[in-house]
Amino acid sequence: MTSSTRDEAAGPAPAPAEGPLPNTVVVPADEDPVAAAGSEVFGGPPGRRALLGVSWWTPARFLVLVTIAVYVLGLAQKLPCYEGGWFHGATAQYTHACYSDIPHLFSGRGFSSGLKPYLDPLPGGSPDMQYLEYPVLTGLFMQIAAWLTTPDGVIQDREQWFWMVNAGMLMVCAVIAVVAVSRTHRRRPWDALLFALAPCLALDATINWDLLAVALAAVAMAFWSGSRPVWAGVFIGLATAAKLYPVLLLGPLLVLCWRAGRWRAFGQVAGGAVAAWLVVNLPIMIANQEGWATFYTFSQRRKEDFGSFWLILMQDRGQQLATLNTWIGVTLVLCCLAIAWLALSAPRRPRFAQLAFLVVAAFVLTNKVYSPQYVLWLIPLAVLARPRWRDFLIWQAFEVLYFLGIWSFLAYSGDSKQHGIGQDWYHLAIVLHLAGTLYLCALVVRDVLYPERDPVRQDGSDDPSGGVLDHAPDVFVLGTARARHEEETYAEYAPDGEPDWLTKP
């Protein structure tokens, strides 16, 4: 046992031959200098009673309260827009960096008029988007908020109310997500404090409805870590019904189950995902297939947009790329194949959270749009993949710079006074935005190639979020891992005292 763990038992226990002690909790302040310095703000590292759960301040309760506090700070940051920035002047919401899609779509998507999502055409909708352009579960979330919004009063007051209702519902999603993250690495619940204190959680939480999918995906990973693949699949399916990216989690599970020979577990998670997705989507597909398909057709037809590498390329070229979807698809497939090779050839089977982070990061990096709120997709995965405060905060700093950069650029381009940054500076903000994500990807890849550097595995753990994959032996490996696997197999079955060359073909 290293200094990074603390015994939950009343007295000392003997060190095991290998792996971490049972009933221990990893305290980031004991193993991370940045976390140790930050813990002094809260009175130092957690004490023995807190670690044992004897104190009222259990990790889950503390994390929930911190998440709510950070979330409320984010709501306060949106106050200039709430008091008129969304309505008085096109650029006020950009100069105050408090933009949100939510109040604008209350009227723009027909909720203020009582239109039914996916069934009723939008007022003044374009030929490419005649119905709500969000996945079905997100549309249901929006509809519930509309039902809870007062039907009377001027439209501005109703839009403010709609935003507040959504903000409250999304705060519940944030709480669910932080609790799920804390229970995914059960010996490392305090790592979830990275999620709770993430600056981008405060800044981006109410831009759009992404936290719904984030919460469902986090619950899915918690169920997988508890060796409940069917329920993990159900929540992956529900998350995919709210946003497309969670379906990518099935890719890492496929290659990891392939390497470990756990095909039954993968079949259960895939079956649960398909079943849950169909339960949510089939009723709308049957009722109005065109309305249901709007999200997918709109995503295919939209052009390069804010935050993406493709936007820089197209603006520098001065023309659009007719085969943009093909280029994006090929680039993403190549990235996923590289991640699959990494998973099958690494010297030790990667952790699920590591591959999950890499594949979702590949998706946002190659996508035609990388909106500022997409960082919310990556925060829980980054916490589980590499729980190191310095690297996490460096990445968050890049994301905060981009958050400020995009609103400054929109203020510059939307107002004749041109208060803000021009296109060249905005392109630099995009480059830094992408570089921050690539920086964290590089660290995760390094941890996969050199498992002894993985902060989660330094105490002897294997894959705390791996569920049935935790400590499972390999049955299919490639590259250097294949050679090492064969050597271990020969060593295991070679007769005592007989040289290796007699037992090898």
UniProtKB/TrEMBL annotation:
**Where located?**
Cell membrane
Keywords, A to Z? Cell membrane, Membrane, Transferase, Transmembrane, Transmembrane helix
- Renumbered to this chain, region (Disordered) spans 1-24
Query: Membrane-spanning residues where?
Result: 56-76, 161-181, 193-224, 230-258, 265-286, 324-344, 356-380, 392-413, 425-445
Which InterPro entries does the UniProt record give? GT87 (IPR018584), UCP010361 (IPR016570)
**GO CC term, one of those recorded:** plasma membrane
Q: What is its main location?
A: membrane
Its record classes its membrane topology as: Multi-pass membrane protein
Q: State one Pfam family annotation.
A: GT87
**What would you give as a GO molecular function for this chain, any one?**
hexosyltransferase activity
**Record-stated family:** Belongs to the glycosyltransferase 87 family.
Report what the protein is called: Glycosyltransferase 87 family protein
